[in-house]
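Please predict the structure of the following assembly.
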Amino acid sequence: MEQASSARFGFLKSNRFRILSVVAVVLAVAPSFGIGVYGEYVLTEALVFVIVTAAWSTISGYTGQVVLGPTIFFGLGGYASAYLAARMGLSPWLGLIVGPICGLIFGLIIGLPFFRLHGPYFALATLALTEVMGLVATNEQQYTGGSVGLQIPFQPPLNILGLSIDLNSNLTQYYIILPMALACTYVMYRIAMSKAGYYFTAIRDDEDTAMSLGVNVLKYKEIAFAVCGFFTALAGAFYANFLFYVSPDAFFGIQLALIILVMGVLGGADTILGAWISGFLLTLVQEGLRVGFGAAAAYPVLIVGAMLVLLLLFLPKGIIRLFTKKRV
Amino acid sequence: MTGGLYGLIALGMTLIFGVMHVINFAHGDFMMIAMYVSFFMFRYLGVDPLLGIFAPIAVMAAVAFVVERYLLRLSRGRGQLILGGKDLTGLLILVGVSMMLENGAQAAFSANYLTLTVSYSNATIRTGGVTVSVPYLVAFVCAIVIMVMLYLFLGRTDLGRAIRATATNRDAASLMGINVDRINLVVWIIGLMLVGTAGALMSLVFYIYPTVGINFTIKAFIVTVLGGIGSPIGAVVGAMILGLAESFTAYYWITGYTNAVGLVIFIVILVVRPRGIFGRSTV
């Protein structure tokens, strides 16, 4: 009993937890230190990518089924949100519930055929699928608004207990995404540390051996894919609210898919908490370069590509492996 | 007739993929560079792309040398990023190279669409009710010729046999005294020289712009999987099928879905018959 409870609450006593709490507190008070609207914008974006990267790590780093097109779910969540608002006149924030459910179900469905594939074939099949979805979003104009995408109308302020909350402001959105990112990483971390998480690793390290030892390989791959789908779609749904629009390029684009990939590798593919390092680092680097070179310049992605190459040559296990060898 | 061009691009990919087991994610981007080389040769030196086809081929050979020798060889054998039982470092490095080339080209040449117009760009030959564009015909003939040459090279020469041995079993080939590193280098150089050829022909019929490559990378990959990995005949036949499927989609359905049809074929073939039409090994 003693041991069980220490295992269950071990995380709360670990260094990782202390570091994360400090980060959380710093982020929570950051807006009151005058980082400005742009600062809030950048931090919000970073937190969205923390969720996406952690979800990517669950399927790619932990389970070993590298997804090159996580935008499948990102776009699905985003379009679900925007569709609710622009075509059905509901609140786009309902997308935070509908989107992840779509992502989860879609992950389970496409997992069935896709998990017949291995390694690079699976990776490229996901990229192909996200391309197809982008094309569908471009061509089915009556549902998706075509290549322009859908606009999300401004929402009237919410009244809760006499408080008027403006969901359109950057600050409110920041305080929505911050606890969301913390909760999401915590849940994914718990999944990765659970028995299922060890099955994931077993499948990654040697699928045949795992199967011979009684691990239901397809089931656990499906679970990992559904987890990835759920959280990526959640982040996508939020991102649609954050940008106030969805478009095939911004949500299904290859560029975005590849940047998520770089983030996944940067922090450490087989870590959930590494997402906090890479989500922030890469978003800040990109925004910094954008400020330096102008928004339309090609240099940010050029440098991100160079970072990926150097990283794979010299630090393929990711930044977090400089600090710890443990499962994180 | 676009099939001929796809075939040329896919031949390089099937070779690299079949031997190295690395998916060349930057394949189309290398072709983009070759297209720019052809374009600048034509604009500033007045060299016809077909006569000056050696320039992009030479540039591609040099690129292949640098990429293989200085990027991929460094990462090989360290076993650092093995996921799902496969070492994906090579693929991911090429993803990075692709991002660099695309955006580097955008920074250097701007994102404008360029066209290279020669006297025969729009020329057509009419035979028995079928109109064929001359550049496509040239590409088609080139693809067939190169396919046959490649087939003979792989089957009949010592170097070709060494390449196939390496493709079948790297370690055993190494034990038999084959210098595997050298084979890798040779395969990359041949593969990218084919890309250079494709780029020169492509510059005649296609717009030249920095992001032209990614679409062709995907198409080459579809064709490779469709035809069977490592099979030159498969690459050309697969390319024909893809070219026809796209033309039919554009003609009978919606132009917007021409790119989708290949991807759907790709997903279906992977799930139904992963080894492709002419492939032997399973995925």
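Residues 2-211 of chain B form one domain. Chain B has one domain: 2-211.
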